[in-house]
């Protein structure tokens, strides 16, 4: 069974999160079906007792005692082989993998780092980790120095690994929870009955806590990732959405939106007009609108809003002595 452990709350100590903030995060994570969460000592102390319905993992520092933290499912401690602990190993170079053989009898391990893994024979290295710890429960937690952590997590799970550690939006330099989740949903139908619209709520939560704006083209949750401008893309999506969309936008609470810009074609103009119930049968008029669109977008150096497009259509038709038939 595939398991994603989300480590967001273990990587946000720099933000002043209230207990209410944290409970909201937990609620949204439960909505998408993630109930294994790594937290920090700071987050732990926000509660008088931990909320039920989750398995919490706590990374202990050198002076922290496990007996001081009740309700924790597993404690993460470097080089620890006790029953209720996960032994963590920081691997910064794939050549260090060989050093792990001396710990092959450890029951629970967490492998963190491997920043340069994509620069080498990652298939071999992933298998070598599994061979060394063939009797162990392995948590794979690649870091994102080379922007490949989400891909590595997905490779680990696809190749037979069971557990990865990620964080929402890659907080703390890890793989992105939402990216790995959707990748596994597409490839293996991971948690097919979960409602994933709460990923959008998590994005709003993240922006509220951090005061940072998530990029509009961020995979899965960016507000413009299903905006389509290129004429050939629009034509392909209208014929078969699977040509360009790996999953249905509605899965994550979004929808495909045709955007009019300098890369648009006549099909885009026709589709956008139909979207607003504008009936234009004359192909010459469509070509005139497209010519004007490209001219204006080159001048503005951006695409048009819906309001700007409608105004442009009115102006072109007026110049041609026609009215906008709606």
Shape verdict = elongated
Structural domain count? 2
**Strand proportion:** 5-15%
**Number of helices, where a helix is a run of at least 4 consecutive DSSP H or I residues:** 10
Q: What's the CATH class of the largest domain, please?
A: Alpha Beta
What is the level-2 CATH architecture name of the largest domain?
A: Alpha-Beta Barrel
Distance between the termini: 54 Å
| Protein structure class | alpha/beta
Helix content: 25-40%
Total beta strand runs: 10
* The CATH superfamily title of the largest domain: Aldolase class I
Using only CA atoms, what is the Rg? 25 Å
CATH topology of the largest domain: TIM Barrel
The mean pLDDT is: 90
Q: Can you write the helix and strand succession as a string?
A: EHEHEEEEHEHEHHEHEHHH
Detail the poorly predicted runs: none
Spatial strand arrangement across the major sheet: 1-8-7-6-5-4-3-2
Sheet of most strands: 8 strands, parallel
């Amino acid at each position: 069974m595939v398991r994603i452990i989300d480590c967001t709350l273990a990587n946000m100590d720099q933000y002043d999160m209230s207990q209410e903030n944290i409970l909201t995060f937990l609620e949204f994570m439960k909505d998408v079906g993630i109930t294994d969460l790594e937290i920090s000592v700071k987050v732990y102390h926000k509660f008088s007792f931990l909320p039920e319905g989750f398995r919490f993992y706590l990374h202990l520092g050198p002076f922290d005692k496990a007996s001081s933290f009740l309700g924790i499912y597993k404690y993460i401690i470097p080089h620890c082989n006790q029953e209720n602990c996960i032994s963590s190993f920081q691997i910064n170079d794939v050549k260090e993998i060989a050093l792990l053989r001396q710990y092959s009898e450890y029951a629970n391990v967490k492998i963190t780092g491997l920043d340069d893994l994509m620069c080498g024979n990652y298939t071999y290295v992933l298998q070598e980790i599994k061979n060394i710890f063939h009797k162990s429960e392995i948590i794979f937690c690649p870091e994102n120095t080379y922007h490949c952590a989400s891909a590595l997590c997905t490779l680990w799970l696809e190749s037979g690994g069971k557990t990865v550690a990620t964080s929402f939006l890659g907080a703390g330099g890890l793989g992105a929870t939402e990216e790995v989740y959707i990748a596994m949903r597409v490839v293996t139908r991971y948690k097919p009955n979960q409602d994933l619209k709460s990923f959008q709520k998590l994005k709003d939560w993240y922006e509220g806590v951090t005061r940072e704006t998530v990029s509009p083209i961020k995979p899965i949750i960016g507000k413009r990732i299903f905006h389509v401008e290129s004429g050939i893309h629009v034509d392909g999506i209208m014929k078969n959405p699977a040509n360009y969309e790996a999953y249905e936008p509605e899965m994550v609470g979004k929808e495909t939106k045709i955007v009019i810009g300098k890369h648009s074609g006549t099909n885009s103009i026709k589709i956008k007009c139909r979207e607003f119930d504008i009936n234009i049968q004359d192909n010459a008029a469509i070509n005139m609108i497209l010519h004007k669109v490209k001219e204006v977008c080159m001048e503005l150096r951006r695409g048009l809003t819906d309001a700007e497009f409608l105004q442009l259509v009115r102006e072109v038709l007026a110049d041609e002595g026609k009215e906008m038939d709606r």
